[in-house]
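Subject: Interface between my chains keeps coming out wrong

I've been trying for a while to get a sensible model of this assembly. When I model each chain on its own everything looks fine, but I need the whole thing in one frame so I can look at the contacts. Pasting all components below, labels as-is. Any help appreciated, I'm running out of ideas.
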Amino acid sequence: MTEPTAPGELLGQIDRVLHEPARLLMVSQLYVVESSDFVFLLQQTGLTQGNLSFHLSKLEDAGYVAVEKTFEGKRPKTLLQLTTTGRHAFEKYARSLRPLLEITEI
Amino acid sequence: MHPPPLTELERRAYRTVVDDGLLDLAFGIFLLSFWVSELLPFDGFPGIAFLLTVYGWAALRRTIVEPRAGTVRLSATRKARVKRAKRWMVLLIGLPVAAVFIWVVLLSSAKQPLGGYGSLVIAGIFALALAVGGWMLELLRFWLYAAVLLAAGLWATLVSEPFERFQFVATGAVAVVSGALVLARFLRRYPPPSVHEGNHAETAHD
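Reply #2:
Try treating it as a single job with all components included. I did that and got this:
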């Protein structure tokens, strides 16, 4: 039988980029679709434009979200897609959270 | 309050694509064109109306829906399900219509090849396709349209309604009203992003 992992060790496995409510919400939303634009994510998450942009740049820096800025006619359009790295990171985050939740079960 | 699970998030994303009421409006207006065609001296109006509603639907989505709700490419699983639903609808309409056409035009020599049940048969074919399509596309209001279509077809048969396309017009009127209500709800739910206030509860900027 293997020794149960120490809570401290479990905490160390948590992805700090994803362990933020707004970013987790954004990544969850992008996980269930192929891609979306900025307005869609804005409406679905209920975040402010500034907040969304800030967290988007964090996710882009981590390589979790691909951002493509285009134009549709004269209107600028920002297309967002979860990268394969982002997809795997989200799945790993969900898995690493489970044992922690078991500890806090009341 | 628990956060929504991923399946619910996916369903919400899908709903932004189909819950704007424009599909119902286009469908209803197309069906109403059968009534308009009765008033016109030529028969081809529903064909013209079909092209206009398809163009109008695409234009309204671009100008009203997308600036408010944004655009999304649905997951591969959802796209496959929508594709499957469309195929079933084409099959459910195409095969019986072809069968009726072959019977009426080629095989039967009777004056009334469907024995006075023409309205009911046509209504039944389209109602079944609407019900199955509505179930597969998770658009349960299409069951209402199917029920109205069937009821109108039955009524037209029982009272020998002289207007042979009555069932389409009745369903079209219901679809237009329902579409307008869904569109109004959509516009309330998705204000333009410029006036969208969002969640003012600031999250930690680490």
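Reply #3:
Confirming on my end. Chain A touches chain B through 30 residues (CB under 8 Å).
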